[in-house]
């Protein structure tokens, strides 16, 4: 006789409902309530303030730039993996896992050193004669995007590698025998093949960028403010919890919409090939 | 037949692109970790690159209980929280991963997104939501609140790691055990759990590492007396860019490397293609 699995699932299900779903529902409710009753006031305050609105746009742009950056860096690494033998493949996986499992704060700290006035980029620019004096990329969006791309890169490499591991090498050989050049194989065969992995990676990168509090706060600095710091400021120093909730709901909705859209695209039958 | 003398230039460019640019991208990925490690051995007072000389002075400063008492407390708090988070996620997520293999695919598909949702939703938002609810009920931020938050947010990692293994298990092994007269508990202890072990260990490793590194949940749920290590590092960076941060980074990188090597030893010997 077969046992039912449901009793095993109950504890975690309860945990999710009571400690995860309920707080989020309360948060959403909190953002609509004042003493008098239901209101859209907190949202009006958020969108009515030009500064807040610019922060939201900045956050979306940062996410998009990081997605583009990680794609441009991740695809070559995936191709290198594809053309490598067994040992080198393991080395690439290992080199991807090290930064991914290293603390975010540590990686952010490394970027402070790299982007700073006394860092390697500044020294290199001076040595090449491009700039006459030490320059710092700290507190600039360019510096932040450079750091975010490195920090999120593993999130896009791993799904790509997962797909390429399952793919038969004979596929490209067939294309080669049929007379296709390497670039044509890349564009018409490899990139479409990698697309589901790219979509999975984009979801992870965007979700990670939009809540990477420390990196944004430290490298972005006071001039470049993003949604997570805005929420924290409202909670920690201004004690405006309803407004913080409203901002959090906006962040949740905007990332949520993007996630749903990308998930739906990746579930699309044509992308899964023979599925 | 057409004379197909191929132009060698595109093929060469492609090789340069894959091997040259691909390697550069890999260096971009790893270099910051190497640089953080190098900085921790500097003999200088500042974070100048390249580091000035070689010394262990910042590690000494970090280990000195007089100079780094706060950091020691923060590290101990972080270890406690991470350990309890692993324990909690074991208790909740491992049974769930076993249970899911005995349920209809359709039911699993409808429950699983709820269990995995904390992995994609911004954990900062969750931290705020948990703080609001805790405040309603009359709980103040504390170590236990932080632990609960970490279990909720990182438990799904354990679930995912364990269920990948659980799905690959042959259900007839557990059935064979019960038909041979082993009790439900005996089967769990001697058959199911040992087979699940690679997934459980991988999950425990991930939960531990993520919990140790978490800022966004602890930011809202930890009180002043339970400073955690990443928040303490954050403060050190913001306040003074203390070089002891480099030494903490060095230790964390070493621990990660060690963990990875051990994980490879434990998880690797599965000679299946």
UniProtKB/TrEMBL annotation, chain A:
Protein name, per record: ABC transporter permease
Keyword check for Membrane: yes
Protein's cellular compartments: Cell inner membrane; Cell membrane
SUPFAM superfamilies in the cross-refs: MetI-like (SSF161098)
TM ranges: 12-33, 62-82, 91-114, 142-164, 185-205, 243-265
Membrane-topology annotation of the record: Multi-pass membrane protein
Entry keyword set: Cell inner membrane, Cell membrane, Membrane, Transmembrane, Transmembrane helix, Transport
GO biological process: transmembrane transport
Family membership: Belongs to the binding-protein-dependent transport system permease family. CysTW subfamily.
Entry GO CC: plasma membrane
Signal peptide: none
Domain of life, source organism: Bacteria
Record-annotated ABC transmembrane type-1 domain positions: 56-262
Automatic annotation (TrEMBL), chain B:
Membrane-traversing stretches: 12-41, 73-94, 114-137, 143-162, 193-212, 243-263
Any one GO BP annotation for this protein: transmembrane transport
Membrane topology according to the record: Multi-pass membrane protein
Entry's Gene Ontology cellular component terms: plasma membrane
Main location: membrane
Keyword Cell membrane among UniProt keywords: yes
CDD domains: TM_PBP2
Compartments, as annotated in UniProt: Cell inner membrane; Cell membrane
Assigned keywords, A-Z: Cell inner membrane, Cell membrane, Membrane, Transmembrane, Transmembrane helix, Transport
ABC transmembrane type-1 domain residues: 75-263
Top-level taxon: Bacteria
Cross-referenced InterPro entries: MetI-like, MetI-like_sf
Family statement drawn from the similarity comment of this UniProt entry: Belongs to the binding-protein-dependent transport system permease family.
Annotated protein name in UniProt: ABC transporter permease
Source organism per UniProt: Pantoea phytobeneficialis
């Amino acid at each position: 006789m077969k046992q039912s699995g449901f009793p095993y699932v109950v504890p975690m299900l309860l945990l999710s409902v009571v400690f995860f779903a309920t707080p989020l529902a309360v948060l959403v409710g909190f953002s609509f309530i004042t003493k008098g009753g239901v209101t859209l006031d907190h949202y009006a305050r958020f969108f009515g303030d030009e500064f807040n609105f610019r922060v939201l746009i900045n956050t979306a742009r940062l996410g998009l730039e990081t997605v583009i950056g990680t794609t441009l860096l991740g695809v070559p690494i995936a191709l290198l993996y594809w053309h490598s033998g067994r040992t080198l493949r393991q080395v690439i996986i290992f080199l991807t896992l090290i930064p991914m499992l290293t603390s975010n704060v540590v990686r952010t700290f490394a970027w402070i050193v790299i982007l700073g006035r006394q860092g390697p980029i500044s020294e290199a620019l001076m040595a090449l004669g491009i700039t006459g004096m030490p320059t710092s990329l700290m507190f600039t969006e360019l510096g932040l995007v450079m750091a975010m791309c490195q920090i999120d890169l593993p999130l896009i490499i791993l799904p790509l590698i997962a797909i390429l591991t399952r793919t038969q090498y004979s596929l490209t050989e067939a294309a080669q025998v049929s007379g296709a050049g390497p670039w044509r194989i890349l564009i018409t065969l490899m990139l479409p093949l990698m697309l589901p992995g790219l979509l999975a990676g984009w979801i992870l990168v965007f979700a990670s960028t939009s809540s990477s509090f420390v990196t944004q706060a430290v490298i972005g600095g006071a001039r470049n403010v993003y949604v997570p710091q805005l929420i924290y400021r409202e909670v920690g120093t201004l004690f405006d919890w309803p407004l913080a909730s409203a901002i959090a709901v906006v962040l949740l909705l905007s990332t949520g919409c993007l996630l749903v859209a990308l998930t739906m695209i990746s579930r699309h039958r044509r992308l899964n090939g023979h599925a | 037949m057409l004379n197909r003398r191929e132009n060698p230039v595109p093929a060469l460019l492609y090789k340069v692109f894959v091997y040259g640019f691909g390697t550069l991208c890999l260096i971009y990925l790893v270099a910051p970790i190497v640089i953080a490690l190098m900085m921790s051995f500097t003999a200088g007072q500042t974070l100048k690159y390249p580091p000035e000389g070689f010394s262990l002075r910042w590690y000494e400063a970090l280990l000195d209980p007089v100079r780094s008492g706060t950091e020691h407390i923060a590290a101990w708090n972080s270890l406690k929280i991470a350990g309890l988070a692993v324990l909690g996620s074991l208790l909740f997520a491992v049974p769930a991963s076993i249970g899911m293999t005995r349920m209809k695919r359709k039911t699993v598909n409808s429950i699983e997104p709820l269990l995995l949702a904390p992995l994609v939703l911004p954990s900062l938002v969750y931290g705020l939501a948990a703080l609001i609810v805790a405040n309603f009920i009359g709980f103040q931020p504390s170590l236990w609140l932080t632990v609960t938050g970490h279990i909720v947010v990182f438990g799904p990692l354990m679930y995912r790691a364990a269920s990948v293994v659980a799905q690959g298990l042959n259900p007839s092994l557990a059935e064979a055990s019960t038909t041979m007269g082993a009790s439900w508990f005996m089967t769990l202890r001697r058959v199911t759990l040992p087979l699940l072990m690679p997934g459980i260990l991988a999950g425990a490793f991930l939960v531990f590492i993520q919990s140790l590194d978490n800022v966004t949940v602890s930011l809202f749920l930890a009180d002043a007396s339970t400073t955690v290590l990443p928040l303490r590092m954050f403060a050190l960076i913001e306040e003074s860019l203390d070089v002891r941060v480099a030494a903490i980074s060095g230790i964390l990188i070493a621990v990660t490397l060690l963990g990875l090597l051990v994980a490879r030893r434990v998880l690797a010997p599965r000679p299946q293609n």
